[in-house]
């Protein structure tokens, strides 16, 4: 990305007013992007304009505002479709986020399963891609099989292939690890599952903000992500599903929007995508997400990936110069996330002291307790980067970690 990229970053940072905040009298260094990203002005303005100009309940309304809001919502669906290259806009289901999207699949696809059926997940999954399946274990008697990994934090594909039996009914894995940054070989994972006639759900929460995702090229059956991790609003997300699967599985929730006809004797369901969107749609959220997608698309996902990769390599090299610092997750293919520990300093202590220096990082188990067990630690300190972060901020982080380490 070179110097022109570096120059643009200042311009980009001006689009994010929160980045110029002071925390305890220090410049904010925001390195908790894996948890949630900050919002550019264009997204916040889109939300404000939505409420001030076209606020109405969408669909079914004959009046002008309702029509305008409906159009904006369905336009947003097309924006998402284009962004992840889905075949049809009706394959884009709006949810409250990745977690709800996974729960939707667990609940609806889960209806097709019976006792003894097996679902394959991986050892590095976020709790939101473990617990919904465990609820299904309780409800339906299904079994979970777990893909192991090596010490670098890479999934063992040969072990993955051995987990398949005639009982395997679904594979559900994350695209990018929220703890280690590992970019999983999801295309190979999907191809092998399909060779066994098994569909695949990909948790793309940490991938969509950082990589170009093409659901048709991946051939994913389901793909989930959240708006708030890609510079959009909280409380809205996406489940992409191939229409053949979405037509096959029953609705997730019942209510308005998702019906065609209702009588006390029988109800028929609406067509896709509405079959899975019970209740008043969050058109403010969907249009805010579309504005965020427009924003990152204007910068270019390839440029974003290149700059974040540069930050990752720079930060990795600088942090490793610190005595006693170790990085957990050293996969060959990695996103801009660094989980680390220094000596036996507790991650919470490190995080609290970094906060006093204006640096926002995440500490703890990162909703991945089985992974922590595999790594043999209680938790880590995690710095996760965005395209609006700078090398100067990395230098501030490194100096602060050194300073805190010296105190112990």
Notable traits:
Aspartate Aminotransferase, domain 1, 14 helices, Aspartate Aminotransferase, domain 2, 7-stranded mixed beta sheet, 408 residues, 4-stranded antiparallel beta sheet, single chain, alpha/beta, disordered N terminus
Outline the structure in words.
The protein is α/β, with parallel strands linked by helices and 408 residues long. It folds into 2 domains: 2-39 and 300-407, Aspartate Aminotransferase, domain 1 (Alpha-Beta Complex); 44-297, 3-Layer(aba) Sandwich (Aspartate Aminotransferase, domain 2), CATH 3.40.640.10. Helices cover 40% and strands 17% of the residues. The protein contains 14 helices and 17 strands. The strands form 5 sheets. It has a 7-stranded mixed sheet, with helices on both faces. α5 links the parallel β5 (118-122) and β6 (143-147). α11 (301-319) runs parallel beside α14. The model is unreliable at 1-7 (pLDDT under 50).
Report the uncertain regions: 1-7
The end-to-end distance, rounded to whole angstroms, is: 38 Å
CATH superfamily of the largest domain: Type I PLP-dependent aspartate aminotransferase-like (Major domain)
Tell me the name of the CATH class of the largest domain. Answer: Alpha Beta
Shape: globular
- Spatial order of the strands forming the largest sheet: 4-10-9-8-7-5-6
What is the C-alpha radius of gyration, as a whole number of Å? 22 Å
Instruction: Supply the number of helical segments.
Output: 14
The CATH architecture of the largest domain comes to 3-Layer(aba) Sandwich
Q: What is the CATH topology descriptor of the largest domain?
A: Aspartate Aminotransferase, domain 2
Helical amount among residues, as a percent range? 40-55%
* Tally of separate domains: 2
Count of beta strands: 17
Largest sheet report: 7 strands, mixed
Broad structural category: alpha/beta
Q: Calculate the mean pLDDT score and round it.
A: 96
Strand content: 15-25%
